[in-house]
Design brief:
The protein is about 5% helix and about 45% strand. The protein has one helix and 23 strands. The longest helix is centred in the N-terminal third of the chain and has 19 residues.
Length: about 300
């Protein structure tokens, strides 16, 4: 939408600029450059979200009356959503009509819930078939991601309250998140595993763990590095911390306990965690004995 408004503003400014010039004949401006575009190039919706609504805006000076048509395109491969199976256009005519009074219209798509069937996140796209009396803008298609709620690790994924002892500041609590991996349904990603702050390099600081087949443990490799690269070109490294030393090899095992009705992650008493950047210093150090309770 911001792109559309910027385009209109520049268009109007250009018109004013030319009209202020001392020319023999003032240029005449019309809507020959009017265009239609999706407000966003990509959106996502939960599988149980029922519908997704996609705004489409026609950018013009005075407002153009026109009708455009659109179509849904199935995604490819195993993660491709299929029309009639995973989604369905609410308006099968696939048309939108614009006017000076209605410059934004909406495409509504019904999401078909497949409860109990794990498909992974699925994608499809919506694109213009024809744009009537105007042209297509830069955002001429929109990719839709249907977020599957039947992930085999769904009971683990989400937000936790982590508690433990900071190496410098003593007992503390912080927020921990477990995020799924898009390609491996045995893998989870820990965000903010040792309390370096949710603002630090955003989600590039996640570290992974492998969940056992029986979903009772998570194995975290020590010495793994994050996607984030500091200004010196070095990534964040996750070490195991035994209370005095850091270890960059081996693994630590997290026990998954659901006996209380809540998911509790017990990180054990062998290792805490030490996050650091070579040549830059320590980000955070927490002692052994960490626990996390799902919110």
């Amino acid at each position: 939408m911001k792109k559309v408004l910027t385009y209109i503003s520049l268009f109007v400014f250009g018109a004013a600029l030319f009209s202020s010039c001392n020319l023999n004949e003032s240029p005449k401006f019309n809507d020959k450059d009017a265009f239609v575009a999706f407000d966003k190039a990509a959106v996502s919706v939960k599988e149980e979200g029922k519908t997704v609504v996609i705004p489409v805006t026609l950018a013009s000076l005075k407002g153009v009356a026109t009708t455009i048509s659109y179509e849904a395109i199935d995604g490819e491969g195993k993660n491709g959503a299929k029309n009639g199976v995973d989604y369905k256009l609410a308006d099968e005519t696939g048309t939108l009509t614009f006017s000076a009074e209605a410059r934004t219209q909406y495409i509504t798509i019904n999401i078909i819930e497949r409860d109990g069937v794990y498909t992974g996140d699925l994608k499809f796209s919506v694109k213009f078939k024809s744009t009537g009396d105007v042209v297509a803008g830069a955002e001429s298609s929109c990719t839709v991601t249907i977020v599957d709620h039947d992930h085999p690790l769904s009971m683990l994924l989400g937000n936790y309250t982590m508690s433990g002892e900071d190496y410098w500041d003593g007992a503390t609590e912080w927020d921990l998140s477990l995020v799924k991996d898009d390609s491996d349904d045995h893998m989870v990603w820990f965000f903010n595993i040792c309390n370096y702050g949710s603002g630090w390099a955003d989600y590039d600081t996640m570290f992974y763990g492998i969940v056992s087949d029986d979903k009772t443990t998570i194995t975290i490799p020590l010495g793994q590095t994050s996607e984030y690269v500091y200004s010196n070109g070095k990534p964040i490294t996750l070490l195991g911390f035994d209370g005095s030393n850091g270890y960059d090899t081996g693994t630590t095992t997290v026990t998954i306990d659901q006996s209380t009705g809540k998911v509790v992650l017990d990180f054990g008493n062998e290792y805490g965690f030490w996050a650091w950047i070579e040549g830059a210093g320590n980000l955070a150090i927490v002692n052994p004995g960490l626990k996390a309770v799902k919110k």
